[in-house]
Amino acid sequence: QVQLVESGGGLVQAGGSLRLSCAASGLTFSRYVMGWFRQAPGKEREFVSAMSRSGSTYYANSVKGRFTISRDNAKNTVYLQMNSLNVEDTAVYYCAADGRNGGLYSGSQAWNFASWGQGTQVTVSS
To answer: Mean pLDDT across the chain, nearest whole number?
Structure first.
């Protein structure tokens, strides 16, 4: 059973940085596409970033140039480095994984990711 555990969330001032981590277990990590989504209060869950098994990266326009996704296959961990944070980045951030398409990126829709973590809160203050 795939298990994803996020960490690294917290409270940060606008303009600051945070690095989220997602430790994965119960899967052959290197064969999975890994992603990050977020959900702000009263809003739908939205795509943030993803990385395919080959290392190709994908970003939402709202975070492009500020956030960086990376993965360490030896540690079964995916990271999200978030810089220049603003109050609109406040949300619960979820790690997601999928191996159904051989680790290829299938798109930014949530249904393309079969496994989800419990989320970590990121709050950006003005």
So the answer is: 97
